[in-house]
Amino acid sequence: MTEPKLRVESLEKYFPINAGLASKLLNWNADQQYVRAVDGVSFEIEPSESFGLAGESGCGKTTAGKTAIRLLEPTGGDIYFDGRQLTDLSGSELKSFRREAQIIYQDPFESLNPRFSVYDWVAEPLDIHDIGTEEERTERVYRTLDNVGLEPPSAYAGEYPGDLSGGERQRVAIARAIVLNPSFLLADEPASMLDVSIRASVLDLFKRLQRELNLAALYISHDLSLLKYMCDRIGIMYLGKLVEVGPTEEIIHNPKHPYTKALVASVPEVDPDNRRDGASIGGEVPDPTFETTGCRFANRCPEVMPRCRDGEPPMFETSDDHYTRCVLYES
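Given the sequence above, the corresponding structure tokens read:
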């Protein structure tokens, strides 16, 4: 059986809250509080597979992604990459892993160094990892720029981020990510800052590169329509926890968890005659600094019952490879 490219088990990432001076004086003996941004998340991504994490802003999906590739240090849990435990790596071993897993950030206007030319920005990873001679690096940078659609490469190599459009900047960011020939890509809201007119071409570029370079990918987005187009499977996060995981078509067309139903119902529908049975949700998202004893969605759920507050439900399998964290499917 093939080893998953990435597997996380019970992943946790807590951020300590730094209280103000007055609060510290009034509560000098109080326990340290934490924001439980990621609170026991488990998933795996197969080689060449596209997996998506979706949810409202603040649900923990970006933190989960960054922690899974150790851009953030985990508070707890285990991370495996090609079967190798990542949580204990340091020094040269961690640097070697960095060649395999690359990230593309949400905002191409912020993620590129304005003082670097396109050539310098794409070549920097090769310098850091001491790959090739100067001539070989130049050839590799030009080939990569051509591969992401910046043609001819010579016309772009000497440009600076301020000279480029949003779509061109994102292509430069993609070129920097793939110039090391990684096997895993984390894309955090990769099209949210782009004009609608160029989003499709950038997403098609991602799909082509994944296919040609045999990349596994984790896409993070609040946009279910984007994840439907890009991903083989989707995980839905709420308040630091996965509440549903399954094949993309199953999640979109047959959602089980009440929160997932509400997310799917909120996606704009082109055909006005195609009405969805939506699930409206009210109330406020609970304070992530407090541990909950029951279902995290209970105070907003339209189908809540007393059993929901007895304890946090586990994942129940509702169909082949489709799991949901809801007591409605306990039997």
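The chain has a mean pLDDT of 90. Try to locate this feature in the token string yourself.
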